[in-house]
Amino acid sequence: MAYTREIHTLIIGAGTSGLLVAQGLKKAGLPYSIFEQESSSAYQTRPREWGMTLHWGSSHVSKCLPPELVERMAEAYADPTVAPDAVTGLPIYNGKTGELIFEMKAERPCRVSRKKMRNLFSEGLDVSYGKDLVEIVEDGEKVRAVFRDGTEAVGDVIVGCDGAHSRTRTCICGEEGAGLTTVPLSMFNFTQTFTAEQAMYLRKLNPLFITSIHPDHGTMFWISIQNVPDPGKPETWMYQLLMSWINNPLSEEENTYEGRLAFFKKRSEEWAEPWKSAGRWVKDGTQIPMDPGTYWEKAAPWDSRGGKMTLCGDAAHPMTPHRGQGLNNALQDSSNFVAAIQEAAGGTKSLTEAVAAYDKEVLERGTLEMQVSLKQTMFIHNWETLMQSPMVKMGMHQAKKEKARTSEEAATE
């Protein structure tokens, strides 16, 4: 495409969406600068790691990545030896009896490692690390990002790809408007390796993931493969374990690393196999973090200041994780943003018009999914409402207004 205007984009955040935006702009021949709050060493060595489910959003990856990186997408998979079409959905079991309830359908689902996907997406990019955004300043027709280390960057548009607790969102919407709402949800989310025999046992039901809901208290217990460094050495395989429930039954004294591990092991004893054994096999001394659920309940049209400021990914629609939609929506945001900047640079739309159209679609799609995912979170943690949850009608498929309405009607029948 021939461009009539050079539009320089400032990307805040080098997570999946920020990196994909940078790759897309680079592929399109458009200038960009990308900034990450963490230092380069912390970015690579952060202790927490988890997986994400890639399904309907995968088509947006090839729109932004160069062909040579698209061909290497398997490097981001939790297990590169599992073909993307090997699994049709997430099997959901009765945690008490071990009986299969149903399968949550998805479009060619595969588990990807957040760390491995970031490493792949960052190839060929020049990321500026240690850049903690403090404020955004309008500077005539330009926009200026001010960082805590005293440095500044000037561009034509700034896009916040800095996650659920986005500083960019706060700069655009204000502290109150950007604030998150906490859901009465508690989550243990951590990784673990096992002996070779144990590791193979945990993958018998499904090579990627399994989950269960316990009918007595609605607790969810998820097991998924996180990393397979050596397919021939199961003792090297890393698993992601997630237990979540509504409200917090842990006392202040119990809510420590030791207390959480004791609670996890005790509650695991109530499960059927293989969840019971997975709980028993978690190593002593494992440090289990406690995470709340959050979403942007106050999401509303934001002032882009004439197309100079916008949001992308979790910064635009932080959501609870129980429908596996965060990554896929972020990938669509990234490709849509790149397309919008191409339109503005090509002269088919002004920057104001292109960003306004982008914002409208992202807000509408993101708000719908935040609401659907929240309903999913609340409904699946209650045995009485489990079969009325969105996953029964919609699976992991992208939320559409009509599908969401049908799910809403089903829940009230």
Description:
With 413 residues, the protein is an alpha/beta fold. It has a domain of 238 residues: FAD/NAD(P)-binding domain (3-Layer(bba) Sandwich). Helix content is 35%, strand content 23%. The protein is built from 13 helices and 17 strands. Strands 5-4-13-14-15-12-16 form a seven-stranded mixed beta sheet. A five-stranded parallel beta sheet has the order 7-2-1-11-17, sandwiched between helices. Strand 4 and strand 5 form a beta hairpin. Helix 8 packs antiparallel against helix 9 and helix 10 runs antiparallel to helix 11. The N and C termini lie far apart (52 Å). The relative contact order is 0.17. The C terminus is likely disordered.
Low-confidence stretches: 404-413
Could you say what the CATH architecture of the domain at 9-77 and 114-181 and 295-378 and 396-412 is?
A: 3-Layer(bba) Sandwich
How large, in whole angstroms, is the Cα Rg?
A: 22 Å
Element string (H = helix, E = strand): EHEHEHHEEEHEEEEEHEHEEEHHEEHHHH
CATH superfamily of the domain at 9-77 and 114-181 and 295-378 and 396-412: FAD/NAD(P)-binding domain
Q: Helical segment tally? A: 13
Largest sheet: 7 strands, mixed
CATH class of the domain at 9-77 and 114-181 and 295-378 and 396-412: Alpha Beta
Number of strands: 17
Report the CATH topology name of the domain at 9-77 and 114-181 and 295-378 and 396-412.
Answer: FAD/NAD(P)-binding domain
Q: What is the approximate shape?
A: globular
Mean pLDDT: 93
Report the portion of residues in β strands: 15-25%
**Spatial arrangement of strands, main beta sheet:** 5-4-13-14-15-12-16
Fraction of residues in helix: 25-40%
Structural class: alpha/beta
InterPro entries: FAD-bd (IPR002938), FAD/NAD-bd_sf (IPR036188)
Domain FAD-binding: 7-175, 305-365
Pfam family, one: FAD_binding_3
Keywords: FAD, Flavoprotein, Monooxygenase, Oxidoreductase
